[in-house]
Amino acid sequence: MLSNKQRKYLRALANGIKPMIQMGKDGNKEAFIRQLDMMLDSHELVKVNVLETSPMSAHEAANYFVERLEANYVQDIGRKFVLYREAKEDPQIVLPK
Fold first, then answer.
1. Which value, to the nearest 10 degrees, does the dihedral of the CA atoms of residues 67, 45, 55, 77 take?
2. What are the start-end ranges of the E strands in the chain?
3. Residue 7, by phi and psi: left (phi above 0), alpha (psi -120 to 50) or beta?
4. Per-residue model confidence as pLDDT tens digits over 58-91
5. Chain centre to alpha carbon of residue 96
6. What is the pTM of this model?
7. Which of 19, 34, 53, 58 could form a disulfide with 81 if both were Cys (CB 3.0 to 4.6 A apart)?
């Protein structure tokens, strides 16, 4: 669970990145979940763009993936959401205490 200070720090980092992946109507399929899982392993902080064809809103999708991928919710704004998961080996992002 992230503290408010940590979440604020991650939001600031996420502000400068573009969405790395787009979620459409097949966003809850295993292939998409595996791809998002690999992105979290390599990047730690991932921004996802939710297309209008998606059956879920950005907030619903963020909560779904938090549970499925054991990630941390950072934020959702409009049709985008941001997830964070510390890398198991060699973490790049150092969170404030």
1. 110
2. 21-23, 45-50, 72-77, 80-84
3. alpha
4. 999 999 999 999 999 999 999 999 999 999 888 9
5. 19
6. 0.93
7. 58
